[in-house]
Amino acid sequence: MYKKVLQCIRSVVNEYSDIQLVDSILNSVNDRQIENKKWITKSLERYYETVKEFPDLEGLPKTVIAAGWYGLTGHFIKEKYNTEVTSFDMDPMCKIVGQKLFPNVRFQTSTIEEFNFKQYQIIICTSCEHISDKVINDFIAKKHFASIVVLQSNNYFSIKDHINCKNSLLEFENSVKLKTLWSGQKNFGEYDRYMVIGL
Known about the structure:
Blueprint: H1 2-16, H2 19-28, H3 31-43, H4 45-50, E1 62-66, H5 72-81, E2 84-89, H6 92-101, E3 106-109, E4 122-125, H7 133-141, E5 148-154, H8 169-175, E6 180-187, E7 192-198
Parallel strand pairs: 1-2, 1-4, 2-3, 4-5
Antiparallel strand pairs: 5-7, 6-7
Helix pairs in contact: 1-2, 3-5
């Protein structure tokens, strides 16, 4: 993976000369990001078995990662489950960089409000601290009734772009309109990350 990251950074520097973008790419694959994305991937084992019985399913289960940044989550999911994976983000650069880093993932540019979630059996958003409760619950309401949703937030209040952190796992769980199948938290030193899996 690190060889791919270095190749991507070389390409970005040559084409865009944007040091902030380089920092962003490096941050997207730091040790905490990798640990968290592996946690998600492992936690989904039983649910990929469940969605094989999904109504009207043809072929492999389809997975989407909302606000997926450069696609690290999608990459791990694709490698482990060989599912069809789409990662989208509102920033067009995420698609450009993502395709260089993880060509095994499909990338789109879209907002959460505009994206159609109906065709996906597994829906993942690890960035709920960046998104209002209204936007999160509005997209949950648009999914297929049998789709499994995986959401993450944290209590990392000191980051400027974290507009919707939660004080506890229970607060996060109560803020989303899902029938909870499983929830848990993991400590990452400066903060705790919360995960809710539900219908």
